Amino acid sequence: MSSSPDRVLVTGGAGFVGSHAAAYYDDRGSKVTVLDNLSRVDTLETADESRNTAAYNWNYLEEEHPDVELLEGDIRDYDRLEEVVEGHNAVVHTAGQVAVTASIQDPRTDFEVNAQGTFNVLEAARTAESDPAVVIASTNKVYGDNVNAIPVREADSRYWYDDSEFEDGIPESLSIDDCEHTPYGVSKLTADLYVQDYAERNEVDAAAFRMSCIYGTRQFGNEDQGWVAHFALSTLRDEPLTIFGDGKQVRDVLYVEDLIRAYDAFLSDPEEKPAVYNIGGGTENTTSLIEFLDLLEEKTGKRSEITFDDWREGDQKVYVSDISRARDELNWVPNVDFEEGIDRFIEWYEEY
Q1: pLDDT of 137-179, one tens digit each?
Q2: Do the bridges between strand 241-244 and strand 159-161 make them parallel or antiparallel, or are there none, so unpaired?
Q3: Count of other CB atoms within 10 angstroms of residue 1
Q4: Which residues contact 14 (CB under 8 A, 6 or more apart)?
Q5: Calculated CA dihedral for residues 319, 184, 312, 104, nearest 10 degrees
Q6: Which of the residues 25, 79, 157, 342 has an alpha carbon 20 to 30 A from that of 286?
Q7: Active-site annotation holder among 56, 184, 215, 349
Q8: Chain segment 126-139, per-residue pLDDT in tens
Q9: pLDDT band at 47 (very low <50, low <70, confident <90, very high)
Q10: Is 2 a member of any domain?
């Protein structure tokens, strides 16, 4: 079995996923560099200082992982990025504009960060003498509204696919064409396609991981992004919640450390691997919003006051990842089931 890369750059390393990647590799003895512009709380309309993921995780890495080199910088600054990438043999690219809502309000910034920023990362990797492999945090939103063209059936507390072709979830082969996407979906798809192109032409060993709902400790969700943490934090803090839609929408959920293990499985041995993976909890780890509120009530004895609002642009009634490619090609399966992951989140929150 190949070993983990020993010199790892994490873009967006003060973010939720990025900080877990930085900690993961530092724990394994790799030399880790984090690059982050610490902008998240300014770019998300519903984020506030009490949920400032970047500030919290920057401080966390400083205190708990003092060997990690922390650099403030922006992936849109190509000259700086080129300097930083050189010398690393792996890049975990998690920097990005993260919300559909923000992309609709400001599509130019969304494009510059997600599409051009990823292009910069790939170019810096291509020209670096250290020849790093690259993984990028892509999204299920690349499939756009085609997901909603799949028939669903309604049960008491959830929707589910009503087509046997999708009983294992959404495969990587689902069409990305002839549908509405939202600017966020388009910018992430652009990045995703560049990754595939650079990989196919052997310019960079690279893969896009099209993520479903990733959750875990040190995540401060809000209405726009990170709904599992948003629901959990709101419940624990006795804050009201708005559900857009009817609450029966279903997602597969993946604990963040399991995601990082999937990244590492690719980066440790990237040659002749596919460049695209749907990644999530799969059919074994699914929940609807209503079912999750029930689970939180069971665990905490609390339930937020709920109001309902209209479905939002880009929302999907059901999204569950078919994770068979990651299983077959990367020898990977999720280790942490949803209930255990939520126990860990609640325990972290109570300490925090």
Answers
A1: 999 999 999 999 999 999 999 999 999 999 999 999 999 999 9
A2: unpaired
A3: 6
A4: 34, 36, 38, 53, 54, 55, 57, 58, 61, 70
A5: 180
A6: 25
A7: 184
A8: 999 999 999 999 99
A9: very low
A10: no
Does the pLDDT at position 42 exceed 70?
A: no
Residues present in the chain in total: 352
Q: What total of structural domains would you count in the chain?
A: 1
1 is a domain residue: no
pLDDT of residue 50: 58
pLDDT per residue as tens digits for the range 296-307: 999 999 999 999
Measure the CA–CA gap between 70 and 68, rounded to whole angstroms. Answer: 6
How far apart (Å, rounded) are the C-alpha atoms in residues 278 and 199? Answer: 17
User: What angle do helix axes 183-200 and 117-127 make, rounded to 10 degrees?
Assistant: 20
CATH number of the domain encompassing residue 176: 3.40.50.720
pLDDT score for 23: 98
Asked whether the beta carbons of 98 and 42 are under 8 A apart, the reply is no
Residue 73 covered by a domain: yes
Residue 184 annotated to the active site: yes
Summarize pLDDT for 77-97 with one digit per residue, the tens: 999 999 999 999 999 999 999
Q: How far is CA 346 from CA 27, 209, 215, in A?
A: 23, 27, 12
d(CA 99, CA 273): 29
292 CB contacts (<8 Å, ≥6 apart)? 228, 231
Could you tell me the pLDDT band of residue 48, with boundaries at 50, 70 and 90? low
Mean pLDDT is lowest, of 72-81, 215-224, 338-347, for 215-224
Tokens of 32: 């880790």
Range of the domain at 223: 7-351
pTM above 0.90, yes or no: yes
